[in-house]
Amino acid sequence: MAPIASAITRVLITGFGPFSGIPNNPSFGIASRLPSSLPNDIELIVHPYAVPVAYHPTLNAVSRLYSEVQPDLSLHMGVAEGRTYFAIEQTSRRNVYHIISDVDGQVFTPEENEAVWAGQPELLSTELDLNAVVADWKNRTADFTWPFSATSSDVMSVNDVQWSDSVGNYLCGFIYFAGMAEMGSNGKNKKRDVSFMHVPLLKTEEELQLGVDVAIELIQSLVQSWRSQRTS
């Protein structure tokens, strides 16, 4: 039998900063509005600064945070500008970050990739049970309503939270892969108990508050599933 989870579950949270066309990144807008704790003995360790949309600073931040915080699980967040729903991502690829330059005009070269992640597979997937997580997340958000005006391009249907496998080949995919590689190598249980949520391009305070509520329910779902996995 797996060890029983400790009374307090520690969850590391990050959000990204601005990049081209996104001066106010809602992922950090959500992260910065989260409380320090939630019911059911959940402690949130929210990184107090937006993670730069840049490969090398992100890699350094991930390495430092996982070492210092030693979280039980983590939730990284980023924006998906064209989406009108929240999504938790399944997998991330390794050697695709030399294609798009970051806000510093840099890429993460194949040579750097090999130096940092030698031995890692091309594709990493979270070890969290996202099927169980999404089912519970949908139930928890079933009564939520979308605050945008009801236009065909803006409206979000009630309970529109989803599983996805399209994290992309920019900083969202990069931080997700880096987190899974880091926790899988150095975490408390050496398991990839890492997650990534894409959020829509939320702009108003009302929209951001919805994002906070959605994130809180996702965290509750993640922790519930994580605890169940550890005690089964």
Rg is 17 Å
Helix content, binned percent: 25-40%
Mean pLDDT across the residues is 91
Biggest sheet: strand arrangement: 2-3-1-4-9-5-8
Indicate the CATH topology. Answer: Aminopeptidase
The top-level CATH class is Alpha Beta
Pfam family, one: Peptidase_C15
Keywords: Cytoplasm, Hydrolase, Protease, Thiol protease
Organism: Massariosphaeria phaeospora
Protein name: Peptidase C15, pyroglutamyl peptidase I-like protein
Descriptive overview:
The chain has about 230 residues and is of the alpha/beta class. The chain has one domain (about 10-230): Peptidase C15, pyroglutamyl peptidase I-like (Aminopeptidase), CATH 3.40.630. It has six helices and nine strands, in the order E-H-E-E-H-E-E-E-H-E-H-E-H-E-H. The strands form two sheets. The chain has a seven-stranded mixed sheet, with helices on both faces. The protein starts with 8 loop residues before the first strand and ends with a helix. Mean pLDDT is about 90; it is low at about 1-5 and about 150-160. GO terms for molecular function: pyroglutamyl-peptidase activity. One of its GO terms (cellular component) is cytosol. Keywords: Cytoplasm, Hydrolase, Protease, Thiol protease. Belongs to the peptidase C15 family. This is Peptidase C15, pyroglutamyl peptidase I-like protein.
Topology:
Layout: E1 9-14, H1 26-31, E2 37-38, E3 42-46, H2 55-69, E4 73-79, E5 86-89, E6 91-93, H3 110-117, E7 123-125, H4 130-140, E8 161-164, H5 171-186, E9 194-199, H6 205-231
Parallel strand pairs: 1-3, 1-4, 4-9, 5-8
Antiparallel strand pairs: 2-3, 5-9, 6-7
